[in-house]
Every structure is written in C-alpha cells, then in structure tokens.
TrEMBL record:
InterPro entries, per database record: SAM-dependent_MTases_sf (IPR029063)
One Gene Ontology MF term: 2-polyprenyl-6-hydroxyphenol methylase activity
Name of the molecule in the record: Ubiquinone biosynthesis O-methyltransferase
Organism per entry: Acaryochloris thomasi RCC1774
Keywords from the named record: Methyltransferase, Transferase, Ubiquinone
Known EC number: 2.1.1.222
Protein's GO biological process: methylation
Length: 295
C-alpha cells in the first residue's frame, strides 16, 4: 500500500473555489474537508506527479483494498461498460474522436470503439497502459490529464471513475476544457456523495479512500463545476457497476467491521464467476456539452 510521505503538504483550500475548508473527519490518517463556500468535499492532501506514480502502481490494479482485486479478470465487465456508454452516446451525438482519461489497459475504450469512435487513452501507470497497446492495439500513452498537451482537440473527453483521483483538479478540468471542441462533450462517471449508501455509511463509505481518491461530488455540485467551464448538462443518471464475488470478499476483508467475517463466509459459497450489481445510487454518470460559440 502507498505510504504517505510526511513531507507532503496538506491542502487546506478548496480546489474548486480556493476558499478554506472545514475539517469533517479523518480517513487513512488524512483529513477530509468540506468547503465553507461551495460545499465541495476534498482531502487535505497536496500530491505531485511523483506520488501519483506510486499510488497507481501494480498493487492498485491487483490486490485487496484501494483499487482492483484483479483488473484483468474484469476485462469483460469493463468492455461491456464501454459498450453501454457507446450506446448511450448515440442519443447525444455522432461518433467522432474521443480521449479516454485514466484508460488503464483500455477495456472501456475498446468497448466504446465498437460504436465507431476513433479513440486514444492516457494512463499514468505505464505498465498497465503498455498492456493495452500490445494486447488490444490501442493508442494509450503514459500521461495524466494535468500534464496532457493542450494542442489536441476531441469531440468527447471521457472521464470514467477518474474525477475523484485528479491530484490537481483545477488543472485537469482546465485541460479537459481546452481539448474539447466547441459543441463537444464530457462524459463523466463518478461516486455520488449524496447517495443513500454514502449517507448510511458515513466515513466508512467505500469512496472515501485517500490518497487514491481526493475529491467527492454530487450530481448538483458537479453540474455547477461544469457550468463554470461553460458546459451544459444534457444528460444524467445512475451508473450501474457489475462486480464479482471475489471483489466483494476483498472489500469485506479490507474494510473490516463486525459483520465482515460472517458475510465473507456467506459469500465463500458463491462461485467466483458470480456477479452482482453495485447499488445503483452509489455512482452517477453525466454528459455535459461545451458551448458552441465562445468569445
């Protein structure tokens, strides 16, 4: 697991509006704050590109806890997600060029390309991105959105479960704005901090996992952020995620708690091939369209 360097400075200002945030609770020895001005929730943490490389190493994609139990074993589920979003986008635009941010090995990207999108991906973990290039023949380069060249333009910027991971949220969104053509779209999927599961679990909610996650949104707060960049929300809904029995057992082992042991024993009788849907309110998707004419 990534060990936080004590020399890393704590971010006390909101990454959205720059105002001071109030401490709410601690998770993984890191304070989580709510902005006193815009109510954005963020981690009291200020990372750089070097720390990002450490966080999203091989263990994030294969191991109990903060990331995937076995990313490669979820290939078919992730490819299906890409196909679902390809189908969804048919109601909003024609296929064009797409940038997949945080593409990993490109399984979601691969599914999207079944709907005639010309796509490329960026991924901070060079090893997992190389797998997508070599096995799926995808155009995936080792990069983060914060440092991505602003000279390219796309009809779609896809940010599936990456918005909460940006180490510099303002810089990332500014680049996302610059590389989106007028009239182009952002497709975002992220955790819903206003969901009933988030309210029920409190600080034990699955999405509160700094340093891997650093920002948390509601549909309302994300809409306001997009509007600040002259993007209008044109679609929004609950995002379904299918997870495997081994993944659920991994979550129980990692999070602990009184009911973890008996529930893990109960899940032990379920075949590893079995999948179930994550609570549908726990994540949401949204599509935002950039204004056509910008002065």
């Amino acid at each position: 697991m990534f060990e936080l360097d004590a020399s890393i400075p704590a971010a006390k200002q909101c990454p959205i509006c720059g105002q001071t945030g109030d401490r709410k609770f601690r998770k993984n020895h890191i304070w989580i704050r709510d902005c006193a001005n815009c109510s954005h929730r963020f981690a009291e943490l200020e990372l750089g590109i070097d720390e990002v490389g450490q966080i999203y190493d091989g263990q994030y994609f294969q191991g109990d806890g903060l990331g995937y139990l076995d990313y490669l074993a979820e290939a078919s589920l992730l490819r299906k997600k890409g196909q679902c979003y390809g189908k969804l986008l048919e109601g909003y635009c024609w296929p064009g060029t797409a940038l997949d941010v945080g593409a990993a090995a490109g399984f979601i990207l691969h599914g999207l390309m079944n709907y005639d999108w010309q796509s490329r991906g960026i991924e901070p973990n060079a090893r997992i991105g190389r797998l997508g290039r070599e096995k799926l023949r995808l155009n995936i380069t080792p990069d983060t959105l914060e440092t991505f060249p602003k000279s390219e333009c796309y009809d779609l910027v896809m940010m599936i479960q990456v918005l909460s991971h940006f180490y510099d949220l303002e810089a990332a969104l500014e680049v996302a704005d610059r590389v989106t053509r007028p009239g182009g779209l952002w497709l975002i999927e992220t955790w819903n901090r206003s969901s009933w599961t988030a309210r029920l679990c409190g600080k034990r909610w699955r999405a509160y996992q700094p340093p891997t996650t650093q920002n948390w949104f509601s549909p309302c707060s994300l809409r306001e952020i997009a509007e600040a960049y002259d993007f209008e929300e044109v679609g929004q809904g609950n995002a379904t995620r299918w997870v495997s029995a081994p993944y659920l057992r991994s979550l129980l082992r990692y999070h602990g708690g009184f009911w973890s042991y008996p529930l893990e024993k109960l899940l032990a009788i379920i075949p590893n091939s079995w999948t179930m849907s994550w609570p549908v309110t726990d994540r949401f998707w949204a599509i935002y369209q950039k204004a056509e004419n910008l002065d």
